[in-house]
Amino acid sequence: MISNPILKGFHPDPSVCRSGEDYYIATSTFEWFPGVRIFHSKDLKNWRLAATPLDSVEMLDMRGNPDSGGIWAPNITYADGLFWLLYTDVKVIDAPWKNGRNFLVTAENIEGPWSSPIPMGNGGFDPSLLHNEDGKKYYVYRPWGPRNHSDPYNKIVVQEFDATTNKLNKKRTNIFEGTDLKYTEAPNIYNKDGYYYLLTAEGGTSFEHSVTVARSKDLFGPYQVSPHGSLVTTWHKPTNAIQKAGHGALVETQNGEWFITYLASRPIRFPDRPLLARRGRGMCPLGRETVIDRIEWVDGWPLVVGGAHAKLEIPEANLPECDWGVSENFTDNFDNHKLDGNWQTLRIPFSDKLGSLTENPGHLRLHGNDSLVSLFEQSTVATRWRHHDFSAQTKMAFSPENFQQSAGMCCYYNTSNWTYCLVDFDEKLNKRCLRLIQVDHQIATFHHYDGNEIIVPDEIAHVWMKVDVKGLDYYYSYSFDGKNWVQFEKSFESWKISDDYIDGRGFFTGAFVGLHCEDISSDGCFADFESFTYLAK
């Protein structure tokens, strides 16, 4: 059996393609750097990180990008001996209408090198590329702008793309106006048996999410919507273990089997907390993850085997198993010269400005930069929450000299919602102190200040920090010897770093646990992290 999700933690908007006997999934990264994560499988069951194409400022500059801006909905295809990767870099969100820039990059090998970004216009998002059977290529997307930004039906538009000149034909053709589910986006078109099959995401990005399928004998329509209803959705199953199913892509194996990858979420629920019952289907701190399901064709229409809802297990493909040995747990002793693929930074690449893996070999050195509320230069290195129950631990050496310098461990959703277990310098006590800070919808709460300090003894060189996530809640602990742990009295709510809490309709990322160092005094400081462990419970 294949267990879902196949990509745990924040991995939304999966686009899947096949090259020979190899399968690749590209997922959105939003403000997290490098942009786009591409995973590789040979059996659709076991996946490993294969590439992060947008890995330099020349490829992707996100300084100042808003929360949940950045890389939206990459689309990966394979044709003509090349991988073709489309993506949107969203620069404006909190405005009368959103604004982003679309680009195309190509590569002969998934590991690169990837071409320089080719501009594809700013007039839409969720672009995909159809490599038509007649050799022509078509750019398919959902338009946006001042007049149609709030139109819940939305149109799907096609433009011809000339791959020799890298230019789009100015003629735009509306081919589909959606269904009563509304919010039509994320188009993918497939050729099969004389039909063009158009997959779109509809219903919004939260629990009403779905995948709709329509078909036409002509690329430019008219398109007939499937009589079977949504291809994928969990809206009709409020108690299903996996929710928010939508935004899908099809792939055919070399053996003629069909599968669909799509995003979905695993909510935590509140059976013993009546005050939270109004949250209904629960809340999803792990963000939107990648799941897979089988497709069967009935009377010329694709259907999900066993029903449209997401499933925790499905029968595996008729493919030789290829287990990469990737563990759900993660330990990093920082003994390589580049960051492990489990780590990402915020908006900018990991560089000498942020830190080093060589200044103190066997350590991650983070240089103090902006605070966790910044959209520009944070020294934050983080990895996804992938389980509802896990423990993460680090060992840190840090010698701050003023109260504007701090370092430690954070649990982070965006610049307005996070918690931070830190060591800083108390200038009244002339001592290092352990603190907790919570920022909740931009409102800050401070713990262990003003007479309730936890002093780090002068002779202590290292402080161990740990966070234990236990379903609805999580707790920070500290140790001065790595053996005897003291748990902070204050606990925090896991569900408060979820899409559902941040915005009533859901926002777009997920919870991360990270290492951070800041110095808003600009006097210069650094923290050395000797190890990090993520352990599922």
From TrEMBL:
<dbReference type="InterPro" id="IPR051795">
    <property type="entry name" value="Glycosyl_Hydrlase_43"/>
</dbReference>
<protein>
    <submittedName>
        <fullName>Beta-xylosidase</fullName>
    </submittedName>
</protein>
<dbReference type="InterPro" id="IPR023296">
    <property type="entry name" value="Glyco_hydro_beta-prop_sf"/>
</dbReference>
<feature type="domain" description="Beta-xylosidase C-terminal Concanavalin A-like">
    <location>
        <begin position="331"/>
        <end position="534"/>
    </location>
</feature>
<dbReference type="InterPro" id="IPR041542">
    <property type="entry name" value="GH43_C2"/>
</dbReference>
<dbReference type="InterPro" id="IPR013320">
    <property type="entry name" value="ConA-like_dom_sf"/>
</dbReference>
<dbReference type="InterPro" id="IPR006710">
    <property type="entry name" value="Glyco_hydro_43"/>
</dbReference>
<comment type="similarity">
    <text>Belongs to the glycosyl hydrolase 43 family.</text>
</comment>
<keyword id="KW-0326">Glycosidase</keyword>
<keyword id="KW-0378">Hydrolase</keyword>
<dbReference type="Pfam" id="PF04616">
    <property type="entry name" value="Glyco_hydro_43"/>
</dbReference>
<dbReference type="Pfam" id="PF17851">
    <property type="entry name" value="GH43_C2"/>
</dbReference>
